[in-house]
Amino acid sequence: MGGGLRDAALVVWVALGVLLGLDFFLSWRGRVPVEAGAPTELFVGETGHLSLRVYRSAYGLGARVPWPRGLDGPSDIEFETAEDGSGIANVPMRAVRRGVCTISHIWLRWPSRLQLLEFTPKMKVDLSVGVVPNIRPVQSGEITTHVQSTLYGVKENRLVGEGSEFHQLREFVQGMDIRSIDWKRSARYQTLMAKDMQSERNHHVIIALDNGHLMREEIGGLPKIDHAVNAGLAVAWAAAIGGDQVGLYAFDARPRIFTPPEPGRLAFARLRSRTAELEYMSVESNHTLAMAELNARTPRRSLIVVFSDFVDTTTAELLVENVSVLAKRHVIIFVALRDPDLVAMANAAPDTLDDVATLVSAGQMQNERQLVMEKLNRLGVTVIDSDPKAVTAKLISTYLDIKARELI
């Protein structure tokens, strides 16, 4: 009895082995050619596409991409049939961290003809994508148009006391400020002549980036430091267009990068390159050392845009104390990125006791944050506490206002 069962089981296993061998023989076609393409450069926070073409039938064909740390995309990929019968896929991938991201290989998968096997070869692709700071507003010309129309356009509005640099002499007409009349030249030309003044140019503007661990917190799908870099580069371009000199300062536990203020668009290209090299640090920022070093490196009165953050009162007190030292000599814009999720939690109607606890904690954090902002305001610091989506527009408007009022 036992021998008969063993013989029957053996026959079944042999038949299964034959079927597997036949299925493998009918399905395996050797190495499958794969073509892959991706953009060489991608702005952080934006989405590009990975294109794949596999020269075999798209029926049942799928793939899996081991996404590197700086890119994010779907875990499973399905292929469509192209006109030549090959399988094609256009895979969206989002850039989430700056740096050079390498996709070295992909895993393909397809079933055998008898559906007994699944082939999962590892295919080499070797693609590199450079994730760089987002300068889309610069490339679009939006910032250039806004700055030039504000500072130099026909709609420019020069208020009394706004300009201290002589621009031109023009004939006095009704509606102009009588205090702009140049009486000596009016007597020479025997008609009323007025001085046309404009804001002084060639100021120093320094973008100071806190690159400590608090700036690694993600807001809107990106770390705070990337939002800060994008906004900092936007205002750097605005300053370059406005005729000012732009520099860069980055710090965490100690000062890391200092690029002296330089004029022109070449300075912007240099700043973009340096910010692209900034690593994501996991150490606590030393504001005392950083602000003291920055103060020593900038003897000339400058506009300093400080991107930083805080979570506790101790960090906040140290930050306020050291920023106040800078504010005695320089014009300071302090930029903090507001967390939309925290605002939503503080404004949500509670349903349970846990919701009440969350509401109280979020409200307390917002109140403490507001107290710090008010303290900075009293010290003469211009504070921008904004949602990441609106911070660039607010920062450029603040820069233009400070420039027009000649506070630097």
Question: What does this protein look like?
Answer:
With 408 residues, this protein is an alpha+beta fold. The protein has three domains: 32-132, Immunoglobulin-like, CATH 2.60.40.630; 136-150 and 201-404, Rossmann fold; 165-198, no CATH class. It has eleven helices and 21 strands. It has helices at residues 2-27, 136-140, 142-151, 183-189, 224-241, 265-276, 287-297, 313-327, 340-347, 353-378, 391-404, and strands at 34-37, 41-43, 47-54, 62-64, 71-72, 77-78, 80-81, 87-95, 99-111, 118-119, 122-132, 165-171, 193-198, 204-210, 218-219, 222-223, 245-251, 255-262, 303-307, 331-337, 382-386. Strands 2, 4, 6, 9, 10 and 11 form a six-stranded mixed β-sheet that branches. The longest helix has 26 residues, at 2-27. It starts with a helix and ends with a helix.
Short description:
The chain has helices spanning 2-27, 136-140, 142-151, 183-189, 224-241, 265-276, 287-297, 313-327, 340-347, 353-378, 391-404; strands spanning 34-37, 41-43, 47-54, 62-64, 71-72, 77-78, 80-81, 87-95, 99-111, 118-119, 122-132, 165-171, 193-198, 204-210, 218-219, 222-223, 245-251, 255-262, 303-307, 331-337, 382-386. The protein is α+β, with helices and mostly antiparallel strands.
